[in-house]
Write a structure and sequence with these properties.
4-stranded antiparallel β-sheet; 3 domains; Immunoglobulin-like; 8-stranded mixed β-sheet; Rossmann fold; alpha/beta; 14 helices; 26% helix; 18% strand
Length: 559
């Protein structure tokens, strides 16, 4: 803004520098998608500790997948492993088997259903009834209104409500006080209590029970119409009205129609940013995921979101003989993994699984997947060294782990590594650590530019940071003043990373370049409203093979 001069003297004018500082985005916000005891459904929630997760989603339980010793809610264990190993922020998406997803996943009726069976044909066994969908518990509060648990699940069956009429104006028949209590189903002790004074049954009042509970209660909402103020008394949840539903399946995580409705993994469209994606195993018999479907759907989504998927291997690999696991991978899974995705460099897989105590089963040593632990190690490494450092090596220890399901040696490691399988190893004194850092596109035969996890993740960091940091350019006049500002701002960001040791090269010119001028942006581009910014960098690649050359010195005569 120019200064208006009106008197003889000195005028001071502040001139904008034209600097738009680019700030690096977060690198280790980890999204978890899976089943939980309670909490919002298909709605991402940020948590910053396992305590946060426990309060909102119910924490770890002793519930098991049917017919197994595997935790039903494996996501809670994975989130706990994440924070135990150095994670600081997670985004949780709880999914449940609701009626819509069960109907979508139901098999089609066989052809000729109406035809009568042959007289000598054995009658088929009756089909097992379909498992009921997850449902929220109902608490009828007299004839006036019905409360429902704030989220589906059997947890709501432990809720009760108490109404009294000792309000601020006892002549107002619309007012009442409400206390909602949740009790532990085993001990009967109170877990949580919420009390709301002077609620109203009248929609025009500021404390109208429907809107007030929706905004302020963590336990209940109003279900249906309000017929008036309830009478004083105590009310309990209808027995069995809260239902956990069947275990999570593919249909709730990446099934049809989920993307359009922003459900399952696509609920993450509602969050600002996430960098790592973990789908805790959810299938029997050894808590598997459908790995091929997982990669096909989730890798494509990660590519859109500039995120990275951590994959747990199928239980068929979990064999005491590593060569059998390798054979299974080569014969059954390798081609599947790579044909399932156009962007396998957006995912990585780690083998074998972990042995660790289960606090919900008397600390018995049980088998757990590693994806939550690996996500925590990525977060720890990013904080200590930077996203350009491989989350592997003797510092990448697996906290809380007593051992691995398979003991790998150097020879085994030499078989898996060229195929892009990251090994977890146990070394004397050091303990169990991550000993590999390749993407699913990291097989030697692929010769990919994104062979290594830190190269892919660092590239995603740069893309996201520059995408967000150059939004100010939109609608600016497209000529040299804009281009020079872009070169200055992007160059400053890249120089900061260079000084932190993020690139190869002994000088800035060897490490990176930023080009935005009349060569990168032609007159045709200008006419079309386009400005082209070309950024190149020399990525750091991990020292995967360290070769020591040792030579004995022959006896020498001293001079």
């Amino acid at each position: 803004m120019s200064v208006t001069v009106s008197y003889p003297g000195v005028y001071v004018e502040e001139i904008p520098s034209g600097v738009h500082t680019i700030t690096g985005v977060a690198t280790s916000i980890t999204a978890f998608v899976g089943g939980a005891q309670r909490g919002p459904v298909n709605d991402p929630v940020s948590v910053f500790s396992f305590g946060d997760f426990d309060r909102t989603f119910g924490g770890m339980t002793a519930d098991l997948l049917p017919g197994t010793t595997v935790p039903l809610y494996s996501m809670a264990f994975a989130v706990n492993d994440f924070f135990l190993n150095g994670g600081s922020q997670a985004v949780i998406v709880r999914v449940v088997a609701d009626a819509a997803s069960l109907a979508a996943a139901a098999p089609a009726a066989p052809a000729g259903k109406g035809a009568a069976p042959a007289a000598d044909a054995a009658a088929p066994a009756p089909a097992a009834p379909a498992p009921s969908a997850a449902a929220a518990a109902q608490i009828p509060v007299g004839a006036a209104l019905t409360l429902a648990a704030s989220s589906p699940g059997s947890w709501g069956n432990n809720l009760s409500a108490t109404v009294d009429l000792k309000t601020r104006d006892q002549t107002n028949k619309n007012l009442f006080n409400l206390t909602v209590t949740e009790k532990d189903p085993v001990t009967g002790q109170t877990v949580t209590t919420e009390t709301f004074f002077n609620l109203s049954a009248a929609a025009q009042d500021p404390t109208y029970v429907v809107s007030y509970l929706a905004s302020n209660s963590q336990l209940v909402v109003v279900n249906g119409a309000v017929q008036g103020a309830p009478t004083a008394g105590s009310y309990t949840a209808t027995a069995g009205s809260g239902n956990d539903g069947p275990p999570v399946t593919d249909a709730q995580i990446f099934g049809s129609n989920l993307q359009a409705n922003k459900q399952g993994i696509y609920a993450l469209d509602k969050t600002d940013i996430f960098n790592l994606l973990v789908i805790p195993p959810y299938k029997s018999p050894m808590a598997n995921t459908d790995v091929a479907s997982l990669i096909e759907n989730c890798v494509a989504y990660c590519q859109q979101q500039r995120a990275f998927l951590l994959v747990d291997p199928p239980d068929t690999w979990d064999n005491s003989n590593p060569s059998l696991a390798l054979t299974n991978f080569i014969e059954n899974d390798f081609g599947t993994f790579h044909s399932a995705s156009d962007a396998p460099s957006y995912a990585a897989i780690f083998y074998p699984r972990l042995q660790k105590p289960n606090p919900m089963m008397g600390n018995q040593i049980q088998v757990f997947p590693s994806s939550g632990t690996i996500a925590g190690i990525c977060a720890r490494t990013d904080g200590q060294r930077g996203v350009w450092k491989a989350p592997a090596g003797i510092d990448a220890t697996l906290a809380g782990v007593t051992g691995l399901t398979v003991s790998l040696n150097d020879g085994d490691n030499g078989l898996f590594n060229p195929l892009g399988i990251n090994c977890l190893r146990t070394f004397p004194i050091i303990g169990s650590i991550v000993w590999g850092s390749r993407t699913l596109d990291g097989a030697d035969v692929m010769a990919s530019d994104y062979k290594y996890i830190p190269v892919r993740r660092f590239t995603l960091f740069l893309e996201s940071s520059l995408y967000r940091g150059t939004q100010w350019c939109v609608f600016e006049p497209n000529d040299e003043p804009l281009w020079s500002q872009i070169r200055l701002n992007v160059g400053s960001f890249m120089q900061t990373l260079f000084l932190q040791g993020a690139f190869q090269g002994g000088s800035a010119s060897q490490a990176y370049f930023v080009k935005c001028d009349s060569e990168s942006t032609t007159q045709t581009d200008i006419n079309n409203g386009i400005v082209n910014i070309v950024v190149g960098f020399a990525p750091l690649k991990p020292a995967e093979f360290v070769v020591l050359q040792i030579q004995q010195m022959a006896g020498q005569t001293q001079s």
